[in-house]
Amino acid sequence: MREISDALGLEISPRVTGSGQLPSCYAVTDLAVHSFAAIGTALAGLMMEMGLTREPAPVTVDRRLASLWFGFSIHPQGWELPPVWDPMAGDYETIDGWIRLHTNLPHHRQAALRVLGTEPTRDSTAPAVREWQKDDLEAAIVAQGGVAAAMHSRAEWQANPQGMAVAAEPLIGWSDPVQSAPRQWEGTADRPLKGLRILDLTRVLAGPVATRTLAGYGAEVLRIDPPGWDEANVIPEVTLGKRCAHLDLKTPQGREILEDLLSQADILVHGYRPGALEALGLDASRRRLLSPGLIEITLDAYGWTGPWAGRRGFDSLVQMSSGIADQGMNWASTDKPHPLPCQALDFATGYLMAAAAMVALRKSLSGSVHSARFSLARTAELLASYPAPEIQTFPMSSSTDDLDEKIEETSWGPAKRLRPPLHGSGLIWGWDRQATELGASLPQWAGRTP
């Protein structure tokens, strides 16, 4: 927890209730507890600075619920969530080891198929993959605009130029402060982020987790996606509390609307690779001109320095690259990659992004604007630094006792959510909007007319 405390500039010392440990050779549950403790501590400090409380509220984290919030929080009542993985996605054996193909998105699937020349099924793909060496196949798919990751050991990753670059990066990369007018919003004791506008330009999964968290404390979150974009397997999970709109940023009109949204936003959360916003005419100076006090919370997969800086990636791929899946294989005494029991890098990064946003908001009250950047690979290094957990497990599946009684009427049907894992005076987590499909709203802030 010390590294998280130092990165956020907070003294984090929660009261922890509950018991159990997610089954892994890594201390995933400890990371979950510390991530939520960071949110609670950051919010308590912000509320005190706002004058909503006289002193920071004590923070209590439920160990079991924190672990479960590192997975799916939504529990459909009478309907089912779509499958998490595309049929072609997964781990494949090569000539010299293992590789993971991530094919949930159509353009990533097509990139892998162009290299392999197969049908989009495991039965067709597996024989073709066995003709490749893992690093060669990874490089070929990446060159085609796809995403894949060869499995390496921790020692191999630590000797890899990208692994060394990531290890040298801070857990949170804070920007130099920019002076702006002190920030004000309509926060109350039970909705401390009410009145804040957060523009969400993120996709699967860490960024949406961060913005869902901020929405849970009252912020207005507007998520923007390209027309036709979909992430059916996670949208019911991460759109809770948000308005979601489509916007074509390849058109002049779309970029004009985005600039208007930015000019009224308090926080921008995005996961664009280096150069992407510049290609849209939104370099740092332009963004600062549009919104001088804008706080930016950004992330990428493989870090901000080194030869892989800006490489596309996802949690499951970083686990393969960084040695986590290999170490899990040895721990589980199996002959194939053994990942973490959940997308822990995504969830931890997302919750820490939310905590950093609250720290930045607190500083903005005095007119000092700070932005922060994260990477999944650096979060992997944080997890790897934790002592190995005690052998104490509980099932990954939740029980009815873990669920809130409230029924959420989502776009897909009724559902329940896990009970909040975080408690403290004023730390009330709840959402003003229920999960919705992408594109269900117009690309405008609430209260505006077209």
TrEMBL record:
- Keywords, comma-separated and alphabetical: Transferase
Gene3D superfamilies, per the entry: Crotonobetainyl-coa:carnitine coa-transferase, domain 1 (3.40.50.10540)
Source superkingdom: Bacteria
Extract the GO molecular function terms from the UniProt entry: transferase activity
In Swiss-Prot or TrEMBL terms, this protein is called Acyl-CoA transferase
Species source reads Parvularcula marina
